[in-house]
Amino acid sequence: DHRALPAPEGRMQTGIDYVAARTPMEEQLEQIWKKVLGLPKVGVKDNFFEIGGHSLRATTLVAHLHKELDIEMSLREVFQHPTIEQMAEAVAGREQSAYASIPILKQSAYYPVSSAQKRLYILSQLEGGELSYNMPGAMTVEGALDRKRLEEAFRKLIARHDTLRTGFELVNGEPVQRIHETVPFAVEYVQASEEEAEVHVREFVRPFDLRQAPLLRVGVIELKPERHLLLIDMHHIISDGVSMGILTKEFIRLYEGADLPPLRIQYKDYAAWQQGEVHSRRMGKQEAYWLETFRGNIPVLDLPTDYKRPSIRSFKGNTLEFVLDKQMSEGLRQ
Predict the structure, then answer these.
(1) Is this prediction's pTM over 0.85?
(2) Is the domain of 129 the same as that of 259?
(3) What is the CATH number of the domain that holds 245?
(4) Helix/strand/coil for 118
């Protein structure tokens, strides 16, 4: 069953003969590529995107190039020069740009928000959109569940990550993030049958008050003594898809009793660093470009939909459920 197999992590067969690094730059790039891709061996003619690379790993690659070789390379350039051989030629003679770590902020009553957080703060104020940026998830847990250990693992996560102790408010008309030393937290427990569980899941997802940290809630539905549903709901202003993966891995390790290494920086440090960049010359040029592009009347996006666009934005919708037969689903998959 092909679909039951995990994604391949080892070196893929691309039909390209292995060619070893021939210059110091190619050797340095090879070491970075192996680290980013998790491969024991990489040839200079291998294509990054054919041996396990994708856009997120390309972003990590760009960061390592800057940090270890003082070379700035854009994401677009990685796509344009996807082999070590091409990349080495592209950076040859390029002026070095010293890497500077994101600085750690001094303690303050509140901190600036990132561009993404500012956008989500504004969107969350729209009437009818109270649940639009909730990030709920549910997992089935088979086997014995230690409630005390589970709650303790989440408390350690909350203590570890500032974002899980962050609330948002306006100061002088600007949204800011306020990080609390401690926040009230308890796992919501309930016993229910399989049939009743769906109602509890629906009731679990409800609006967050962005001022009140944590913007995270956790619930456990006991279906049987050794079968539970673990429910998690977070607001998008403190988390995203990548964050969820990190939190899940860390939660499992903490539940198993492991100690995690301390974090050098927190999200507030990144937000302040990013907002400092906003005032740079480069950001100023980009802002000028978009102001020029959108000068004058902006055309209305007029998509051919079943109903006319309402005069007031609405978040009302519906869910339609239907079943595809095997032939159609297989056709779609192909």
Answers:
(1) no
(2) yes
(3) 3.30.559.10
(4) helix
* Per-residue H/E/C for 150-213: HHHHHHHHHHHCHHHHEEEEEECCEEEEEECCCCCCCCEEEECCHHHHHHHHHHHCCCCCCCCC
Contact 136, 143 (CB under 8 A): no
Cα–Cα distance list, 334 to 162, 185, 322, 328 (Å): 44, 46, 20, 10
User: Within 13 A of 290's CA, how many CA atoms are on the CB side?
Assistant: 5
172: left (phi over 0), alpha (psi -120 to 50) or beta: left
Helix (H) or strand (E) holding 120: helix 115-124
**pLDDT 10s digits, 179-237:** 999 999 999 999 999 889 999 999 999 999 999 999 999 999 999 999 999 999 999 99
CB atoms within 10 A of CB 296: 5
In a domain, 231, yes or no: yes
Q: Mean per-residue pLDDT for 153-169?
A: 97
Q: Are 25 and 96 in contact (CB under 8 A)?
A: no
- Show the domain range for 81: 2-91
Q: Which residues pair with 175 in a beta bridge?
A: 170
